[in-house]
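Fold description:
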Amino acid sequence: MRPVIALLTDFGTVDHYAGTMKGVMLGICPDVTLVDISHDIPAHDVMAGALELAAAYKYFPAGTIFVAVVDPGVGSARRGLAADTGDYRFVAPDNGVLSLVLRDAPAKKIVELTERRYARPTVSRTFEGRDRFAPAAAWLAKGTQLTALGRAVSEIQKLDVPVPDATADAIRGVVVRVDRFGNLVTNIDRKAVERLGQGGTIAIDAAGQRVERLVATYAELPADGVGALFGSTDHLELAAPSDSAARRLSLSRGATVTVSRRG
C-alpha cells in the first residue's frame, strides 16, 4: 500500500501554507497519498487541534503518519516531536496537541526532531511546518526509522484536558468543542450516561438551562428547542434541528453540562 500522510493545521486554505507543506512532502516521497483532516482549526487553538486529531486518527489505515501543526510557539525553544504508537506515527510541535491521541494510544517511542538531514537546509522561524515537520513526515513515509530523526525523549508537554466529575447521582462535564453546525460536544461519554441511567431516567442541564430530552438521531430533536444525543465520537452533544444549539443556548466551549438521575 502507498504510504499515507494526514494533515491537520490551523493554516486555512486561503494562503499557500498547507499546499506548500504538501509540495515539500511530495518532493521527498513522490508516491505518498496526502489526506487533509482539516486546515480550519481556529488559529492558535491547540486544544481544538488535539480534539480533532483524536476524533479522526483511529479511522485511518494502520501505518498512517499524521502531521499536526497548530503552533502558536513557532520559532521558540519548544521542541518538534515524532511519536510512534505502533499503529500510527505523529509529527507535531511539543505543545500538547498530541495529548489526547497519546492518552488513548500511548507512544512506544518519542523522539525530538534534532537530526538536520531530515529537515530542509534552512528552517524558517515562522514556518516550521514547511521546513521541519513536513520533511520529517515525508522521510518517515519513505521508510526512514523514527529513531533516526533525533534523540529519544521521555516527557512531553500535555494539555490540561477536562475530565467529567462523576458521582452516584450525577455527571458534571463541560463543552469541549463547538462544531461547524453549532453542536455543543461535551466530554461526557455514552458509557458513563448509560451507567447513570440504569433503571431510571435522566435530566440534562446546560449551564442552568434544561435540555429537553435525549434522542437517538438529529431527526428526533425537538423542533423549537435543544436536545441531546451521542455523536460520532460517542460523546454527549447538545443539538438543535437545522440550527445552532450554541446560538440557541448562548453557550460556548467551557460551559458546564450536568447529567443527573431523576428522583
Q: What stands out?
A: The domain at 4-149 is CATH 3.40.50.10790 (Rossmann fold). The first strand starts at residue 4 and ends at 9. DSSP finds six helices and 14 strands in the chain.
